[in-house]
Amino acid sequence: QVQLVESGGGLVQAGGSLRLSCAVSGITLDYYNIGWFRQAPGKEREEVSCIGTTDDGIYYSDSVKGRFTISRDNANNTGYLQMNSLKPEDTALYYCAAAPQGLLLFRLCTPDEYNYWGQGTQVTVSS
C-alpha cells in the first residue's frame, strides 16, 4: 500500500520559515517525481513546486520562486519543501504527491499526472 505522509506544517508569522516533509512508503522514490501542491479555502488547488527523478527538472510557481526550495532524499524515501519568507497568502493545506518517472518536462507539475497523494499539512501564516 502506497502512503505519503506530510509533516512540518504549522502557524508562523509572516517572514518566517517552515520545512515540510513528505515521507513515502510502498514505492521506491527513485522512480517517481515529487510534487507539492496547495489549496486555500475557497480557491482551487494550485501547483507549488515539483522535482523530477534526476533533479534536472525542477519547477516553481511564480508565486513561490526565490522563496521556496524543493528537494528529495531518495535514500530515505522522503521529499522536502523548504519555505522561507512566508507570506499570509501562502496560507493553505499543502499536499505532496508522487508521479512515475518519464514525465515530459512541461507536464512535471500537472496534478493529473500524479497518482499518489498525501492527506495534507496545514500551513498558516499570520500577518
Keywords:
mainly beta; four-stranded antiparallel beta sheet; 11 strands; 127 residues; seven-stranded mixed beta sheet
Kindly describe this structure.
- This protein has 127 residues and is mostly beta strands.
- It is built from no helices and eleven strands.
- The strands form two sheets. Strands 2, 4, 5, 6, 9, 10 and 11 form a seven-stranded mixed β-sheet that branches.
List the helices and strands and how they pair.
Layout lengths: L2 E5 L2 E4 L4 E8 L6 E8 L6 E6 L6 E3 L7 E6 L4 E6 L8 E9 L15 E2 L3 E6 L1
Parallel strand pairs: 2-11
Antiparallel strand pairs: 1-3, 3-8, 4-5, 4-9, 5-6, 7-8, 9-10, 9-11
Indicate the proportion of strand residues. over 45%
Q: What is the arithmetic mean of pLDDT?
A: 95
CA-atom Rg in angstroms: 13 Å
Number of β-strand runs: 11
Instruction: Characterize the biggest β-sheet.
Output: 7 strands, mixed
Q: Order of SSEs, N→C?
A: EEEEEEEEEEE
Low-confidence stretches: none
Q: How many DSSP helices?
A: 0
Give the fraction of residues assigned to helices. Answer: under 10%
